[in-house]
Amino acid sequence: MIEVPILMLAGAIAADLVLGDPKSRYHPTAWVGTLIAKSATNAVRIGSPRAAGVIVVLGIVSLVALLLCTFDAAVKSVGGTLSVIVMMLAGSVLLKTTIAIRGLEKHGMHVMESLSRNDIGEARSRLAMLVKRNTRDLDRGHIASGVLETTSENIVDGITGPLFYFALLGLPGAFVYRTVNTIDSMMGYKNETFRDLGWFGANCDKVLNFLPSRITAYVMVLAAAVVGADWRGALCTMRRDGKKTQSPNAGFPMAAMAGALGTRFEKVGHYTLGSGTADLDEGHFRAAVKLMKVTSMLFCLLVVVPVLAVLSYVGWWIHV
Question: What's the confidence (pLDDT) of residue 81?
């Protein structure tokens, strides 16, 4: 029934926009994070760090997939109207936990508010919770750039990526994607401790993000046209600078955002995206949030719903 996953999608988006993403130890991401931390601690006792990393990823992903598939099968086994109602309500809540539209806006705004008070120290500390780079010596411009960079990159990680895999594989797909993404964020650091342990998770994340990142970047170009931003600049910059980042995926939505806003993003010593102004302020952040939200809505309409419709029509098992 195509109506059920579409209603789940609509419910999840509405819940996120209204309720945001309150912190809770009962949040599935918190559970997964705790499981990852404990598994990584035990895995380092294995002789080969890379083998340990593979075991951690496959073990946690299998467990998450099993739990979600069991939930899906249990609800469908009930049958009738009750099954549909439970799937729509519970499914919407579960899917909502994999996306963070309001969360991206809130965390970015905290940094920008610190900058507006000229509290550079606080802004650096708040940015450090959002990015992997060292923020200790960043000036105002590079702090603001970091906020806009992580906002545009996380459109994929926190919105379109999980929704893309929800369209393909239902709730199990969305949760497996977010699990791999969380593993990469916790273990994918290229330092002595995690270089080998996090290798497998980081590469799984790259594979899963290959299509969503590029599709999202092109949808962002269309979103730029809708909101009156520079869509030509978004397209040109995305094509020119999308491959400049060390990540094979992150640069595409970041470059599209930089071009759409007529700005320049810079991670010192690594890359420069766009050729516009580097003097970034809250106005640029608000424009980025607007573009993020429109991109998310268009992605749902142009990618998620059509994929759901096609797969439901052909009888794809997860949507039957």
Answer: 85
Residue 98 and residue 32: Cα distance in Å, rounded?
A: 12
Q: CA–CA separation, 256 vs 240, rounded Å?
A: 10
- 3-state SS class at 179: helix
Q: Contact 264/270 with Cβ under 8 angstroms?
A: no
Q: Which residues pair with 272 in a beta bridge?
A: 266
Give the other-Cβ count within 10 Å of 51's Cβ. Answer: 14
What are the tens digits of pLDDT across the range 189-210?
666 667 778 889 999 999 999 9
The span from the first CA to the last CA of the chain, in angstroms, equals 6
Amino acid identity of 5? P
Query: Widest CA span of the chain, in angstroms?
Result: 60
Q: d(Cα 82, Cα 85) in Å, to the nearest integer?
A: 5
CA count, 13 A, side-chain hemisphere, 299: 33
- Can you spell out the DSSP letters for 219-268? HHHHHHHHHTS-HHHHHHHHHHHTT-SSSTTTHHHHHHHHHHHTB-EEET
Whether 56 contacts 31, CB under 8 Å: no
pLDDT band for position 40 (cuts 50, 70, 90)? confident
* Chain mean position to CA 204: 14
Give the amino acid at 163.
L
**C-beta of residue 270 within 8 angstroms of C-beta of residue 279:** no
Q: What is the pLDDT of residues 54-94, one digit of tens each?
A: 988 999 999 999 999 999 889 888 878 888 898 899 999 99
Strand, helix or coil at 273?
strand
Task: For residues 39 and 57, give the distance between their C-alpha atoms in angstroms, rounded to a whole number.
Answer: 9
Q: Helix or strand or coil: residue 102?
A: helix
